[in-house]
Fold:
Amino acid sequence: MAQESQHMQPGSAPAQAFGFATRAVHAGEEVDLREGATGEVVAAIHLATTYARRKVAEPGRYEYVRLQNPTREALELKLASLENAQYGLAFSSGLAAETTLLLALLKAGDHIVAFDDLYGGTRRLFEQIFANFGIEASYVDATNAQLVENALKPATKMVWIESPTNPLLKLADIRAIAEITRRRGVALVVDNTFLSPCLQRPLDLGADVVVHSLTKYLGGHSDVLGGALLLNDKQLYERLQFNQNSTGAVLPPFDSYLTLRGLKTLALRMEQHGKNALAVARYLEKHPRVSRVLYPGLESHPQHALAKAQASGFGGVLSFDVKGTVADAENFLERLRLFTLAESLGGVESLIELPAQMTHVSVEKAEREKIGITDTLIRVSVGIEDVSDLIADLEQALG
Ligand SMILES: *Cc1c(COP(=O)(O)O)cnc(C)c1O
Structure:
């Protein structure tokens, strides 16, 4: 690999022949052994905001950091390789990536069909920002692909799904929905934050654009905020690149470096997150104080077969209901010692939260109840600690 050297260009992607874990380590960071090159094995953090040119009319490969930056490019190449995408763009947050995509694909009068169980911030973006510009969203239970098709209107330009969803771990059949959107000429966007490309690759299943919050599993250490878009359509990529440069939501060089560093262990981390989450889910499922456990890896999950058919693992997030009142749920959460009571997910440490009062507080109570987010529902992001320690902590807090 090292001898191939050079910076891989988007689209050339010869490294696709390598396995996922190999690409997670090497893609975008091939060692350059050409005359005069450093031979460094890690992509450098390039901090210059502007680049010199020899002649007025002849800019070099780099001009200005908002437009291109070598560290960000290394990350974009790695991300594209991992999602089996031709093109990748890295943004200053997941929501910045979403905003740039929505601005590129939609205009006043357009309509979005979205999964009714959606990341709270995405729903807020649709309802409280884009609605002001004449872009309307309607929400359907996308566990049933037919309901997605039924919701399409002449003005629908985009279908937006997550699978598994947040926080109810419902699945959408990405292949079936992609077949519908392709037939109807609508763009399919999949937010792949929960499983990461390690476990699920929506572009291979027919999606048009993959969205990521790098802040979660891809960064993996709860210390960097970022987002990404991955896609195969060259024209759309060029438009997104133009829009990103025009609106400015790029990922800074330091954060690009941190994400590159985190990505190298993605395969290892996802394996451990998945093992630990399954063990915790099985433990909770048997506990008398727990009334239901939602995790696609459990045989009791209504879409367990679909989970196995479209992904190679089940991820590290699960949700469950404790019996009793909201106060009982709060007491349990506050008695935990190892699980940290905090929003977010996807880091090496285990986090736990109460969606109705934390991550999904911006979703109205009636809507929360309609889709199944009860006031006692608890969401867990299972980390990579020793699973015996995690279970012991749950045991003492459940009492
Ligand atoms: C966190 C998250 C986002 C938003 O990403 P930020 O990086 O926080 O802006 C979008 N979708 C999902 C599923 C998320 O978990």
About this structure: The radius of gyration is 21 Å. Residues 266-398 form a domain with the Aspartate Aminotransferase, domain 1 fold (CATH 3.90.1150.10).
